[in-house]
Amino acid sequence: MLRRSGRRSKKAGEEEEKPMENGVSPVQGATEASPEVGRAGDGAPVACSQPSPRVRPRLVFHTQLAHGSSTGKIEGFTNVKELYAKIAEVFAISPTEILFCTLNTHKVDMQKLLGGQIGLEDFIFAHVRGETKEVEVTKTEDALGLTITDNGAGYAFIKRIKDGSIMNHVQTVRVGDSIEAINDQSIVGCRHYEVAKMLRELPRAQPFTLRLVQPKRAFDMIGQRTRSTKCPGEGKLTSGKETLRLRARGAASLEELPSAREEAAARSVDDLLESYMGIRDVELASTMVEVARQCLSPADFAKSLDSVLGEFAFPGEFVAEVWAAISEAKGGRK
User: Fold this and answer.
1) Structure pTM?
2) DSSP assignment of 149-164, as one string?
3) How confident is the model over 249-269, as pLDDT tens digits?
4) Which of 141, 150, 134 lies closest to 194 in space, CA to CA?
5) For residue 223, which of 94, 141, 93, 125 has the smallest C-alpha distance?
6) Are strands 207-215 and 123-138 parallel, antiparallel or unpaired?
7) Measured distance CA(77)–CA(63) in Å, rounded
8) What pLDDT, in 10s, does the model give residues 271-287?
9) 52 pLDDT band (50/70/90 cuts)?
């Protein structure tokens, strides 16, 4: 949890300040006492007064439906599922209608996909279910050319389609399409790595069916937030050096932005996730970088990964490459 410094205590006689959006309301109670120890009239030491506990930040984010809607405000969420529930409440829809969210753009832009971090001034666009479609594909090669990610709330979707691949020639399949079923077997609730494994294990030379749900698209984008409207948060990742970090396990926390080396390390790990497992997951990659921060050797790293992310069952060769990539990005630890 990031500690804020430089906050002055409230002076006597000043009015109580109102809570601030994406700031911290002032410390409640009287002025903070000096840390010095005084003495009572009889010479006995007087214990230091302890400052009142700081109030947790009140973080408020603006949101719209990506295909067009009024603007709503959300707050009080600690993970992705709660975030979707808050958005759904604002727009009177079911949380299961939300496929994924993007930051600061209404477009299906996988580079702006909401992952595990939200800048304090980011504008959240929710992409909801649109048309359902089924496609039949014959697997003529081992790799289909799909990179899968998920929204952290039960939906896996296509993040990338490799040029020249089998799926690249299926015109109806697009980036952003949610995979609802494979050969009529529902995969709702499955993680991205599970879906990628199912697709890899499909037999060659046999047709298979994908049931896909595409994000709802607007026919008329008038009224959408754009850079020219100069609305808060549009095209602006953050004005400060803090983000709200959403975690799969545990509560959200306000943290400093990762360093340039940590960002480079996470990108390298994300690339390895795609090449080894057919998935992309910035939050997973960032978590692996965090785990490596506490480790002194590849063996320590493998053990720590198993305790934190054991459900992925990462192969030893992959773990070794991840350690090497993180070490190289951070400047030479071996």
Assistant:
1) 0.70
2) EE-SSS-EEEEEE-TT
3) 666 667 777 788 888 898 899
4) 150
5) 125
6) antiparallel
7) 14
8) 999 888 888 888 888 88
9) low
